[in-house]
Amino acid sequence: MKPARIPVVMLCTLGLLTAVSVVLGTALSIKAFAIGGGYTLEISLNVLPVILAGYLYGPAAGLIVGFVANLIKWAMTGAGAFNPFIALSMGFMGATPAFVARIIHKRTDDAKRNTVPAMRTIFIGVFVGQTVFSLVVNTVLLHVMYGTPYMGLIPQRAINAAVMIPVYAWLTRECLRMLARIKN
After folding, report:
1. CA-to-CA distance for 113 and 90, rounded, in angstroms?
2. Packing angle, helices 8-26 and 59-77, rounded to 10
């Protein structure tokens, strides 16, 4: 049995998306609105390339890009001990929107499966991914790791999610539309 071969274009694209995620998460991250010693809103688009990887090459690609990007970001910044569960959570933030889009497309039996998903589909996928993994899972992990009280984390993370979910959904839609135009 021959080993599966990964197309070079796919490998290069996933590598570039990983690099872009690392840059967006380290150099271009803005922490704003400090309330009570913590940051209510962190404007960082590092999840966008992870979501795009999931849409372009499937949920597994989004998972891998998110995990590797988080690992590289941790290695570059050296911020505390590496937590593989937070890295997996980042991966699932990229895999979930693509997975949700596949479920919705199967349910509606869309004839044009290679078209850009509707904004509603993208928003639902990003909402589920960000709510489950950023708001719930990461909040629990931060509480376990650092002992920060839930009531200190949840309001800040909820405000961040409320701002970033529509931003991620809109930017994902625009990036996918631009990529579709380039392919044709």
Report:
1. 26
2. 40
- 39 strand-pairing partners: 34
Q: What does the alpha-carbon distance between residue 44 and residue 26 come to, in Å, rounded to a whole number?
A: 9
Residue 120 maps to a domain: yes
Can you tell me the distance from the alpha carbon of 99 to that of 102, in angstroms, rounded to the nearest whole number? 5
Q: Is residue 20 part of a domain?
A: yes
40 SS3 class: strand
Quick: pLDDT tens for 9-65: 899 999 999 999 999 988 877 776 555 555 556 778 999 999 999 999 999 999 999
Domain that holds residue 140: 8-183
Note whether residue 119 is domain-resident. yes
Assess contact for 164 and 130: CB atoms under 8 A.
Answer: yes
